[in-house]
Amino acid sequence: MKNSGTGGLLGALVDAIVTAVDVAMTEHIEAARYANHYVFDDLPYGKYSPMYMMDKELIAKDKDVKKALSR
């Protein structure tokens, strides 16, 4: 648990809340990173890329996402 430097019961409560928020946000951040990678990895190359217009024959990934993060 993180230590906010505040003593007593109030300090322990603040530390517990900060830790709970930190853990809860980490799961959402991991899910967002996975989703962003999944979406942006399938975009065609832009006009400033050396691969521009050379990716016409590449097949797009499946549209349905069936992955889930485990706790």
Describe the structure.
With 71 residues, this protein is mainly alpha-helical. The protein has one domain. Helix content is 46%, strand content 0%. The protein contains 1 helix and no strands. It has one helix at residues 8-40. It is elongated and about 65 Å long.
Summarize the structure.
By secondary structure, the protein is mainly α. The chain has one helix at residues 8-40.
Keywords:
mainly alpha; single chain; elongated; 71 residues
Present the secondary structure layout.
Blueprint: H1 8-40
CA radius of gyration is: 21 Å
**What's the helical proportion of residues?**
40-55%
- What structural class is derived from the secondary structure elements? mainly alpha
Q: Describe the global form.
A: elongated
Oligomer: single chain
